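Collaborator request log, item 7. Partner lab (contact: R.S.) asked for a structural prediction of ATPase to inform their binding assays.
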Amino acid sequence: MSIAGIEKVREAETKAAQIKKTSEEAAAQIIADGKKESKVLLEDAEKKGTETYKAAIAFAEAKAEESYQKKIDSEAVLCEQLKASARENLMQAASAIVGKVVGTYGND
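Returned to partner:
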């Protein structure tokens, strides 16, 4: 092989080494960029997941409070009805007791 041929081979090897180095640097940059992007995507997903979770909890709490309040209101109405009924029965019971006492002890 001639000196010109050897020099061409060396130039080709040098060029190949430069191309390989540039490719490795580009690949490393692509990998680094990919890691950064995946980190950002993961953080966004976690943030959205947390927001969704908080919204779901808030919704469930609101529904539970609404259901609780409806039940309390319903029971309060029943309580008032029972109190009204008890007042009527109390008056009848008092009259019966007074009648019994007066009837029993009033004739002595």
